[in-house]
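re: ur question from yesterday

yeah so i grabbed the chain u mentioned. its 79 aa long if i counted rite. heres the sequnce exactly as i have it in my notes:
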Amino acid sequence: MIAFAIIWAGLNFDGVVMDIQSEIARVHGFVDKGNYHAAINIALSAMNECRRMEQQAGIDTFIEMIKDIANKLADEFGS
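ran it thru and got these structure tokens back, copy pasting raw so excuse formatting
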């Protein structure tokens, strides 16, 4: 499973809560199925939402997830 550093219930964006744990779980679900493209897209979308809300901890979390996914992809398919 891909490592991540941030654990919290969610970020509040003008009354809308992005559930960080749910997004992390979605990313892990796609990684577990080998669908790295979807996993990176979801992590990137979540990171962009954190950028819009100026939540650096969330940005860092999703960047690390994207790096981990890319490394897993390279390990699995690289020569």
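noticed a couple things. Residues 24-77 form one domain. also Confidence is low (pLDDT under 50) at residues 3-9.
anyway ttyl
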